[in-house]
Amino acid sequence: MKAVVFHDVGDIRLEDVPEPRIEAPTDAIVRITASAICGTDLHFVRGTFSGMKPGTILGHEAVGIVEALGEDVRNLQIGDRVVIPSTIACGNCSYCRAGYFAQCDGANPNGKEAGTAFYGGPAATGPFHGLQAEKARIPFANVGLVKLPPEISDDQAILLSDIFPTGYFGAEMAEIKPGDTVAVFGCGPVGQFAIASAKLLGAGRVFAIDQYDDRLRMARKQGAETIDFNREDPIETLKRLTGGIGVDRAIDAVGVDAEHAFCGGHGEAEPEPKGRNGQWKPGDAPAQALEWAVQGLAKAGTLSIIGVYPPDARTFPIGMAMNKNITMNMGNCHHRKYIPRLIEMVLARRIDPAKILTQVKPIGDVIAAFEAFDRRENGWVKVELLPQRQAHGGHSGEETLVDQAVADTFPASDPTTMQNPRSR
Questions:
Q1: pLDDT reported for residue 257
Q2: Are 384 and 190 in contact (CB under 8 A)?
Q3: 274 φ, ψ to 5°?
Q4: How high is the mean pLDDT of the chain?
Q5: Is 210 within 8 Å of 263 (Cβ atoms)?
Q6: Residue 124 has pLDDT above 50, yes or no
Q7: How far are the Cα atoms of 41, 90, 106, 161, 200 from residue 102, in angstroms, in the given order?
Q8: Are 2 and 387 in contact, with CB atoms under 8 Å apart?
Q9: Measuring CA to CA, which residue among 164, 244, 237 is closest to residue 197?
Q10: Cα–Cα distance between 87 and 101 in angstroms, integer?
């Protein structure tokens, strides 16, 4: 089968690899019908997150059809259509039972203290082969697969695998209450869903901070108040627009690749050191979004961190945060906890996650798609992959412009829409 394989920093290839097989009674084999490229994948390709094992299949987002089941998977059937949560969890340990699936004690073979297990990641996360492939082995499938209703399309479901749950998780960790003023740093895919989720939780105002016109335009279509930090000082602007107070809640949707160029999603960025007024140096940059978030928060505000940072990241403005009585929440998303809730929101037409897709590509075009996504070409916000298509072929929306991708129905951008969703 075809799969996207990591070989070294800057070296990924579309290759023929052996098909996966059942290795444990709780495994399933899924034929992937939709996958995606995420900013987290770029961390590994760029080397900003180390520890990748050569030969690892990339990717942690997928939708597919169950083709084989281990004997202890008793809640699924062959032929079921499923979405795959990005993080892997056993479902039995105390953390899973409490809903902390990303801190599962049983999934990571490196031990209880090893941290989150997920598909297509570094050795410390398993490693587990990823989902940018024609088929994948899913461990703990009774927990790690969520059945999809027929009303939800693959285009919608692929956003439920990782980035919508992560954005919602970030908004929930920000402790957003009705009427709150919120700042989202980074308007990539996860940042867009953090904006949407803030509105779903009742935020009164949402500010979106980025430097790219296409992403700021997408945020503005959601009803966010946009700030281009290359054109104005983001903190001075936030303070001015909030009467000198700052925001109640802030979400860092950027992560480690802010050291290259601040943009968004799970830290999608360009390899050019750039920042507030172009003044900070690359070595200072991992704290840039965090510093802005702390500076922009009102006293006693809440900071939520969902951007990816490696374990050796050290820089944070702790003194400033402490002296403002800032509350901080952070971590990897517990995808399995949120996916059923978000499926219900999609079915209720409170949000259509597929509107964020800007490109849909067959897997045969994946290397070129990675390169365009890495360069942050205009209009490349979220890329869906079709693993069952080897050559470039037709697909409605294969080249979707941002203005077309974000209709006034994505996501629900006002309280009336959220309370009384429109029927199609």
A1: 62
A2: no
A3: -160, 145
A4: 87
A5: yes
A6: yes
A7: 18, 10, 11, 14, 23
A8: yes
A9: 164
A10: 7
CA-based nearest residue to 332, from 121, 118, 119, 50? 118
> Residue range 330-335: average pLDDT?
96
Q: 8: buried, middle or exposed (CB in 10 Å: 19+, 13-18, 0-12)?
A: exposed
CA atoms within 13 A of residue 45's CA, in its CB half-sphere: 26
270 pLDDT band, cuts 50/70/90, is: very low
Q: Report helix, strand or coil for 99.
A: coil
How many angstroms separate the CA atoms of 342 and 193, rounded? Answer: 12
Tell me the backbone φ, ψ of residue 193, rounded to 5 degrees.
-75, -25
Q: How confident is the model at residue 287 (pLDDT cuts 50, 70, 90)?
A: low
Sign of CA dihedral 294, 125, 390, 48: positive
The span from the CA of 53 to the CA of 387, in Å, is 22
End-to-end CA distance of the chain: 39
- CA–CA distance, 278 with 290 (Å, rounded to integer): 17
Domains of the chain: 2-161+334-347 (3.90.180.10), 166-330 (3.40.50.720)
Judged by DSSP in three states, 305 sits in: strand
- Using the structure block, give the residue that is written with the tokens 């971590």: 331
pLDDT > 70: percent of the chain: 84
Query: Rounded CA gap, 402 and 376, in Å?
Result: 13
Structure confidence at residue 282 (pLDDT): 35
How confident is the model over 174-216, as pLDDT tens digits?
999 999 999 999 999 999 999 999 999 999 999 999 999 999 9
